[in-house]
From TrEMBL:
Protein name, per record: Integral membrane protein
Signal peptide: none
Positions of transmembrane segments: 110-131, 151-171, 183-201, 207-226
Assigned keywords, A-Z: Membrane, Transmembrane, Transmembrane helix
């Protein structure tokens, strides 16, 4: 049985040429390989020792969602064994259909996790702000006419930016081969940027430092929850 090995570096995408896979059978020998479906959406992730046929499935490409190189051993059966292709292809098609069914569930789980984390962050920041106010922090913003930030304002701002984070996570789940890693880096970068404005509004040092702490508190609730949800969705 002729065979060859296909190597996919981390994050690589290899288009599927139908003629080359007409009678071929693939086996993942190292790493993970994700199937890209005919509509461009991410399909099932195949792990080591997983076998698959692509004939008749409409798979457009093979992706490596990990960092390390993945390898696929491609076997071409002898003519007398090719009569089994249709049955195997049908099985693989069923697996891909199952993968399409799971995709909405992944987004629903991410949305539920995001909403729960958002509510938790919206509850945590006003409580922390109330404790800081009781300790003497006035939350007065000189550049805003010396107005004091109300406790409800912390919940509103936290909720808005938390939901922005949920949207970013959903976009990365849809389009990125490594959504959890991309989200983590993006969220950390945006959180770092959010720590600058509190020092630019002319507030007292204690107010600025407390505002930074509230930003970090919200991030500590949202980022781990969404990152875990993205990892679970792509595992």
């Amino acid at each position: 049985m002729p065979e060859r090995t296909l190597a996919l570096p981390g994050g690589a995408r290899v288009p599927v040429v139908a003629a080359q896979w007409h009678h071929a059978f693939g086996v993942v020998t190292r790493g993970r390989v994700q199937l890209e479906l005919r509509d461009g959406e991410p399909g099932p992730v195949l792990r080591r020792h997983a076998g698959f046929w692509l004939r008749g499935t409409g798979v457009r490409a093979l992706r490596n969602p990990g960092r390390r190189t993945a390898t696929v051993r491609i076997l071409t059966p002898h003519p007398e064994t090719r009569r089994n292709d249709m049955t195997s292809s049908t099985d693989t098609g069923a697996d891909l259909a199952s993968g399409r069914t799971r995709r909405p569930r992944r987004f629903r789980r991410l949305a539920v996790t995001g909403v729960i984390a958002t509510v938790a962050a919206m509850a945590a920041t006003p409580v922390a702000a109330a404790l800081a106010r009781a300790a003497g922090v006035d939350f007065a913003i000189p550049d805003g006419g010396d107005e004091t930030i109300p406790l409800g304002g912390f919940a509103v701002v936290t909720g808005f930016f938390s939901l922005v984070g949920v949207v970013i996570a959903a976009v990365l789940l849809r389009w990125s081969a490594r959504p959890a890693e991309r989200f983590l880096w993006t969220a950390v970068a945006l959180t770092a940027l959010s720590l600058v404005p509190p020092f630019l509004v002319g507030a007292a040092a204690t107010t600025s430092i407390t505002l930074v702490g509230l930003h970090l508190l919200a991030a500590a609730v949202m980022i781990p929850a969404l990152t875990r949800s993205l990892r679970a969705a792509t595992s």
